[in-house]
């Protein structure tokens, strides 16, 4: 087995992490949630630590939840937004990372439009690098928060997703969320049923063949069959230009999920996820998105504790993250005890 | 720069493989005044007892130090003029000598492109402190822009050994056909990099399991295959107008494209092709961090899909991209059955600035001229390439593609002493310190390779000599 990429220094990927490693993020997120619900909503555990968010792609929920997470742990937060158009022209990624290090960054949270950029950045950074999404490739914290939400709602008695079926529907080709979820869901023991337009599931048939527990289905009904959870992926407007999808309406008719389709095929109590932002009325019906099955807002809220766990574990490894036990107790010492 | 003049060099009892004369065996070679003064086969020549192909394989008790004719490279970039930070003729030549090469054809991808006779003359004149034969391949079209043919006759007179727009395939089919005809009329081959940019634009890694797992933009095999098939069709037609037209396809990487060349050769078309060391020995799984040789993958141990800490090494970004183990096997099979007649390095040095960027933004290319023989020997050690064929693919094969057998006359008494000594049992580690060229953009950094080149002689003079400490 090659060396793992989620060392306790970086979080580059969830691929290769086993269930024990994944569930330790969930456990740490539980502790983080207790901090968030404490009177102050924060601890000083990472006082003096500088966390920088470096985003080469626009993002709302990921960046803000990382920044909230860092603040709730007592870290200082800086934010660098880079217009993607300047990539390759102005300061290179390697120079930017070195500069941030020289300015005292201990943690860089990187969102980049190119697959593999976090690996490259991590090689020139002696702090901790957290991947907040790299191109089509990976979105580790999204997969972790999806896993945390799913375990809470459809988890088996042992806390895993053994025996559960999760459907992922839509544009798999361009989706880092789908790629990372494949790893976490399989490691948690779930069966994964994939489906989407043929041009947007390119390569996934071979991938499914290669790996146990993953099926590429030929229709929405087949993918929804017996599903305990359904994850709809965003369909982007540029897919229309590339001819991968003929129209949003055609997409909705074949691949859009709504209550009727879920009720007809999925398991009772099937829950619905979406990484956002949603095209309501295209990949997901508005009533479903806002209805009782929907966990979409819970996914957003889960972002903060999971990202607290990601930052904490990158810096402190397996040390327990503790909520403030009593007023005036130095949280950072406690946390390291 | 003064070089040690080896008045007399005695190489006693080495394993000698000479494809030009189809002889192999244990021999003693003595070099005197730049020529081979003595060549004595210990047991008589192998030809007498076995075929060359079997006879070239050394036995357990045979010496591990081998003498081979100096190697010939069909495809290298020495970046002069234009990119001296990556390589220049002097550093490229030194790197080539370290790799065991005695003759190197230089692609015209310089800045400006080698499309002007004066530029070629300059390049030929800058030959060459170490005495290697450096042969300019001239641009097929002006500025390699694919709009108008270059002044081919003048370029040929100035020393061009072939024409190519390497890296910028000639998109216009009529222009391509005319290039074949014009080059053919001058008795020179057209060398084509087969790629349809409409299919490959933005491609980061070969379309397949690895690119899909790593989220890298796919470079489909059809991007090579369609160009190969088109070019074969155009060659067939060009021959009606110019029977001397010759087409050489460089760095083919897909099984299907090689099949197309195999069929075209069976049809009798004057077409040849080469494969690179990296396409025969590496796979796209290296991008995920898997570091096995291409022949070490199997159904039981398929490519590792989860990226390791070593993943996304930009030294693996190359065009055409590294492919899966089956395509790499097809490249080796093409060498074995003669479909591919040469191993060409596509030595493409790049400065750090061009590689220390995101994977998809990194310049394409691997600096390979110093490691090609070792990589080929690794394939040999694994039983993947017979030694006779390996040496031919690095000497007589490429010389024949250029129509210049004199580049690989081999080892004959009274002939020029252009040879190398390599110890196939001596490993060396590829790193910044052991590489001689100006750029170290190779994915083999840190890897131990078989086959240390101990000595390269060009006209009897030392172009490369290993220090004894290693």
Main attributes?
heterodimer; A: 337 residues; alpha/beta; Rossmann fold; 5-stranded parallel β-sheet; 4-stranded parallel β-sheet; globular; disordered C terminus; B: 470 residues; Urease, subunit C, domain 1; TIM Barrel; 8-stranded parallel β-sheet; 7-stranded mixed β-sheet; 16 helices; 28% helix
Task: Assign the CATH class of the largest domain in chain A.
Answer: Alpha Beta
| Major sheet of chain B | 8 strands, parallel
Strand content of chain A: 5-15%
Overall form of chain A: globular
Q: How many structural units, i.e. domains of chain A?
A: 2
Judged by helices, strands and strand pairing, the structural class of chain A is alpha/beta
Structural class estimated from helices and strands of chain B:
alpha/beta
Broad shape of chain B: globular
| Through-space gap between termini of chain B | 24 Å
The CATH homologous superfamily of the largest domain in chain B corresponds to Metal-dependent hydrolases
Number of helices of chain B: 16
The CATH homologous superfamily of the largest domain in chain A corresponds to Aspartate/ornithine carbamoyltransferase
Most strands sheet of chain A: 5 strands, parallel
CATH T-level fold name of the largest domain in chain B: TIM Barrel
**Biggest interface in this structure?**
A-B, 39 and 32 residues
Topology, number of strands of chain B: 17
What is the CATH topology descriptor of the largest domain in chain A?
A: Rossmann fold
Q: How many individual helices of chain A? A: 14
Q: What is the annotated CATH architecture of the largest domain in chain A?
A: 3-Layer(aba) Sandwich
Q: H/E element string of chain A?
A: HEHEHEHEHEHEHEHEHHHEHHH
Percent helix of chain A, as a range, is 40-55%
3D structure, described in words:
The complex is a heterodimer of chains A (337) and B (470). Helices cover 40% and strands 13% of the residues of chain A. Chain A has 337 residues and is an alpha/beta fold. Chain A folds into 2 domains: 19-139 and 303-317, Rossmann fold; 140-297, Aspartate/ornithine carbamoyltransferase (Rossmann fold). In chain A, helix 4 (117-123) links the parallel strand 3 and strand 4. Chain A is globular. Mean pLDDT of chain A is 91; it is low at 1-6 and 329-337. With 470 residues, chain B is α/β, with parallel strands linked by helices. Chain B has 2 domains: 8-67 and 415-425 and 448-465, Urease, subunit C, domain 1 (Roll); 70-408, Metal-dependent hydrolases (TIM Barrel, Alpha-Beta Barrel). Helices cover 28% and strands 21% of the residues of chain B. Chain B has helices at 52-55, 89-99, 117-125, 152-157, 173-185, 197-200, 209-214, 222-241, 255-266, 277-281, 285-288, 325-336, 352-355, 372-381, 387-393, 396-401, and strands at 8-18, 23-32, 35-41, 65-69, 71-76, 101-106, 133-138, 162-164, 190-193, 205-206, 218-219, 247-250, 271-275, 342-343, 419-429, 448-458, 461-465. Chain B has an 8-stranded parallel sheet with strand order 5-6-7-8-9-12-13-14. Chain B has a 7-stranded mixed sheet with strand order 3-2-1-4-15-16-17. The radius of gyration of chain B is 21 Å and the shape is globular. The relative contact order of chain B is 0.16. The mean pLDDT of chain B is 94.
């Amino acid at each position: 087995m090659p060396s793992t990429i989620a060392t306790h220094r970086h979080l580059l990927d969830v691929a290769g992490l086993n269930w024990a490693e994944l569930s330790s993020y969930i456990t740490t997120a539980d502790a983080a949630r207790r901090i968030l619900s404490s009177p102050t909503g924060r601890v000083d555990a990472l006082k003096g630590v500088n966390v920088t968010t470096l985003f080469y792609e626009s993002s709302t929920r990921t960046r803000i939840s990382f920044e909230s997470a860092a603040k709730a742990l007592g870290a200082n937060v800086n934010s660098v937004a880079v217009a993607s158009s300047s990539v390759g022209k102005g300061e290179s990624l390697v120079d930017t990372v070195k500069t941030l290090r020289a300015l005292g960054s201990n943690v860089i949270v990187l969102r980049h439009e190119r697959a593999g950029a976090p690996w490259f950045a991590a090689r020139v950074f002696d702090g901790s690098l957290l991947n907040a999404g790299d191109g089509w490739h990976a979105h580790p914290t999204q997969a972790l928060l999806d896993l945390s939400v799913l375990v809470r709602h459809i988890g088996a008695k042992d806390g895993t997703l053994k025996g559960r079926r999760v459907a992922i529907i839509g544009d798999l080709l361009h989706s880092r969320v789908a790629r990372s979820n494949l790893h976490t869901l399989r490691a948690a023991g779930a069966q994964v049923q994939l489906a989407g337009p043929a041009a947007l599931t390119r390569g996934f048939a071979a991938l499914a063949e290669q790996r146990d527990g993953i099926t590429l289905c030929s229709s929405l009904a087949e993918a929804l069959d017996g599903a305990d959870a359904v994850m709809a992926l965003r369909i982007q407007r540029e897919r229309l230009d590339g001819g991968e999808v003929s129209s949003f309406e055609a997409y909705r008719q074949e691949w859009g999920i709504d209550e009727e389709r879920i009720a007809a095929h999925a398991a009772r109590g099937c829950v619905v996820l979406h990484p956002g932002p949603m095209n309501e009325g295209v990949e997901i019906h508005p009533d479903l998105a806002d209805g009782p099955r929907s966990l979409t807002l819970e996914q957003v809220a889960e972002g903060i504790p999971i990202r607290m766990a990601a930052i904490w574990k990158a810096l402190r490894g397996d040390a327990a993250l503790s909520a403030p036990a009593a007023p005036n107790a130095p949280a950072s010492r406690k946390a390291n005890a | 720069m003064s070089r040690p003049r080896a008045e007399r060099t005695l190489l006693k009892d080495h394993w000698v493989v000479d494809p030009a004369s189809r002889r192999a065996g244990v021999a003693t070679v003595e070099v005197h005044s730049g020529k081979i003064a003595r060549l004595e086969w210990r047991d008589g020549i192998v030809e007498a007892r076995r075929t060359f192909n079997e006879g070239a394989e050394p036995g357990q008790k045979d010496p591990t130090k081998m003498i081979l004719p100096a190697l010939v490279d069909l495809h290298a970039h020495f970046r002069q003029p234009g990119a001296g930070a990556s390589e220049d003729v002097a550093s490229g030549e030194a790197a080539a000598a370290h790799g065991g090469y005695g003759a190197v054809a230089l692609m015209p991808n310089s800045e400006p492109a080698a499309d002007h006779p004066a530029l070629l003359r300059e390049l030929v004149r800058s030959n060459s402190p170490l005495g290697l034969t450096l042969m300019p391949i001239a641009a097929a079209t002006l500025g390699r822009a694919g709009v108008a043919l270059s002044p081919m006759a003048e370029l040929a007179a100035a020393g061009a050994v072939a024409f190519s727009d390497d890296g910028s395939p000639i998109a216009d089919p009529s222009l391509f056909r005319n290039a074949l005809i014009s080059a053919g009329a001058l008795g020179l081959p057209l060398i084509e990099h087969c790629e349809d940019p409409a299919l490959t634009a933005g491609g980061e890694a070969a379309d397949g399991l690895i690119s899909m797992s790593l989220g890298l933009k796919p470079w489909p095999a059809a991007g090579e295959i369609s160009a190969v098939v088109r070019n074969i069709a155009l060659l067939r037609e060009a021959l009606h107008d110019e029977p001397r037209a010759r087409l050489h396809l460089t760095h083919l990487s897909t099984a299907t494209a090689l099949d197309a060349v195999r069929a075209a050769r069976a049809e009798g078309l004057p077409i040849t092709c080469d494969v690179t060391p990296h396409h025969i020995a590496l796979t796209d799984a290296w991008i995920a961090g898997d570091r096995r040789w291409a022949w070490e993958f199997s159904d039981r141990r398929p490519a590792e899909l989860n990226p390791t800490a070593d993943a996304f090494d930009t030294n693996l970004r190359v065009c055409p991209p590294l492919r899966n183990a089956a395509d790499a096997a097809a490249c080796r099979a093409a060498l074995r059955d003669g479909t591919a007649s040469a191993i060409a390095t596509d030595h493409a040095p790049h400065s750090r600035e061009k590689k220390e960027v995101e994977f998809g933004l990194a310049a394409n290319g691997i600096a390979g001229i110093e490691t090609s023989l070792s990589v080929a020997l690794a394939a040999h050690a694994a039983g993947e390439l017979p030694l006779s064929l390996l040496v031919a693919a690095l000497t007589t094969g490429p010389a024949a593609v250029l129509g210049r057998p004199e580049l690989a006359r081999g080892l004959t008494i009274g002939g020029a002493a252009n040879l190398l000594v390599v110890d196939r049992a001596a490993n060396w580690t590829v790193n910044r310190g052991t590489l001689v060229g100006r750029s170290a953009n190779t994915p083999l950094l840190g890897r131990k390779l078989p086959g240390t080149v101990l000595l390269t002689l060009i006209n009897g003079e030392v172009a490369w000599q290993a220090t004894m400490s290693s």
